[in-house]
Amino acid sequence: MQQLNALIAEAKNLAQPSAAVIEVQRVLQICNACRYCEGFCATFQSMTRRLDFNSADIHYMANLCHNCGACLHACQYAPPNEFGVNIPQSMAKVRLETYQTYAWPAKMGVLYKKNAIALTLLTSSAIILFLFTLVMWSGSLFNTNLDGNFYAIFPHNSLAQLFGLVFVTMIIALGIGVTNFWRSISTDPLAAGAALDATKDVLTLKNLGGGHQQGCNEADDAFSLWRRHFHHMTFYGFMLCFAATSVATLFHYFLGWEAPYSYTSLPVLLGTLGGIGLVIGPIGLLYLNLRRHELHGDHGQKPMDLGFIASLLAISISGLALLAFRETAYMAIILCLHLGFVMGFFLMMPYGKFAHGIYRSAALLKNAIEVRMGKTVSVGAD
Ligand code: SF4
Ligand code: SF4
Question: Is residue 14 part of a domain?
Fold first, then answer.
C-alpha cells in the first residue's frame, strides 16, 4: 500500500510539472533552436533527439547533466541576457526534485530538503555517544593491552551483522527509488552493449570533461580538469575502502585469518590507499565547491553537498587515524568515532548526496540505450 501511494504521488508529480521542470522546458526550447552546445555533453545530445520534453524527459536529462558549467559560460543567452538561460542551475533544481520524488519510503524524501550537515552530524553523534557508552561500560576505554585488535572491543560478528544489516537496508531503499525512476524514464529494452557504454561513462566521468574535454568551468571562464580528478579520487578511494572491507570479510569468514592485519596485508594496503584518496578527493571538491561561480548549481543544495563531503572526510581521516594509533591507548576512542561516522554515512546514503551517483548512472544507461537505438524522439513515460 505504501509503495502504491508513493507511485500515485510520483504520477501526480510528473503529471503536474513543477516550476523547476517548466523552467527547464523553457530553456531547452531555446537551446533546441540554438544548438550551439549540442556537442558538449550527453544532456545536449539527448536534447537533440527530442522535439519536445515531457516531465520524465526533463528528470532524465537533469540527471544526465554533470553540472560542469561549460554551457553556462559558452551561452550568449545566459544572465544578464533577458532569456536568462542557465542550464546547470535549472537542471540542478530538477535533480533535487528527482531525489525527493522517487525516495523510498516516500516520506523520507523530505530529508533531501533538510540541512544535511546537521542531519549527518546528529546521526553520527548519536551513534558515537552510544558506542562510547558501550565501551565505557565494558571497561575497554584507554585499555593499552588490546594489541590493535578492534574486535576485543566490539565482537566481529556483532559489528558485521549490525553494519551489514544497515548497509543492505539502505541499498535496498536506494535501489527501490532508482528503479521507480528508471521505470518512469525508460521503456526501452536493456542491452549488454549499452550497459558497457554506460559503465565506461560512469568510470571515466566523461561528461565532467566540459565542452571539449578541457574540463569544467569553476569560478570563471577558465577550464579545469581538477573537479574530474577530485571526483575520481573520491570515487576510487571509496571503492578501494569497500574492497578492503570485503577482502577482510573474506579473510575472516573463508580463510579464518582474523584481524588485526599487518601493514603490508591486502586489506590494510587497499584501505590505506582508499583512505588517502578519500582525503584528497573530498578536500579538493570542498575547495572547488566554495569557489564556484555563483550562477552554477542550486545554492539551496550546498548544505547537502557540504554535508556529504564532511561525512566522507570524517570517515577517511578517522579511518587513517585508527590505523596509525591502533596500538595506543586511543584506539577505542578513535574506533568509536570511525564506526559512528560510517554508520551516519550508511543511514544517509538513500537520502543525501550519495544518491546522485546512482541516479546519474541510471540516466547514463538510458542515454547509452538511446544512442545505440538511434532514437530521434522521446519515449519516456508521461
Ligand atoms: S546553453 Fe545557450 S548557447 Fe548553449 S545551446 Fe543553450 S541557448 Fe545555445
Ligand atoms: S553544465 Fe555541463 S554537463 Fe550540464 S548540460 Fe551544461 S555542458 Fe552539459
Answer: no
Q: What is the residue range of 130's domain?
A: 106-186+209-357
Using CA atoms, how far residue 189 sits from 193, 365, 369, in Å, is: 12, 11, 8
Q: What's the domain count of the chain?
A: 1
| Ligand 1 centroid, distance to 296 Cα (angstroms) | 15
Q: Which residues, at least 6 apart from 12, have a Cβ–Cβ distance to it below 8 Å?
A: none
Nearest ligand 2 atom, CA 208: 3
237 exposure class (CB count in 10 Å sphere: 0-12, 13-18, 19+): buried
pLDDT in tens, the chain (382 residues): 445 554 544 554 555 789 999 999 999 999 999 999 998 999 999 999 998 899 999 999 999 999 999 999 999 999 999 999 999 999 999 999 999 999 999 988 888 877 666 677 777 777 887 787 777 777 777 777 777 788 888 888 888 999 999 999 999 999 999 999 999 998 888 888 999 999 999 999 988 876 677 788 888 888 889 999 999 999 999 999 999 999 999 999 999 998 889 999 999 999 999 999 999 999 999 999 999 988 988 888 888 899 899 999 999 999 999 999 998 888 888 998 999 999 989 988 999 999 999 999 999 999 999 999 886 554 444 3
Residue identified by cell 545505440 is 372
Q: What is the DSSP letter of 328?
A: S
Q: For residue 241, tell me if it sits in a domain.
A: yes
Query: What is the CA(199)–ligand 2 centre distance, in A?
Result: 19
- Strand 216-217 to 223-224 pairing: antiparallel
Q: Is the CB of 297 under 6 A from ligand 2?
A: no
Q: Which amino acid is at 337?
A: L
**Distance between CA atoms of 369 and 348, rounded to whole angstroms?**
30
Residue nearest to atom 7 of ligand 1 (CA): 31
Nearest CA to ligand 1 atom 4: 37
> Residue 132 corresponds to which cell in the numbers above?
562510547
In a domain, 191, yes or no: no
Note whether 24 and 61 are within 8 A (CB). Answer: yes
Q: Is 141 left (phi over 0), alpha (psi -120 to 50) or beta?
A: beta
Q: Check if 207 has its Cβ closer than 6 Å to any atom of ligand 2.
A: yes
Residue 217 falls within a domain, yes or no? Answer: yes
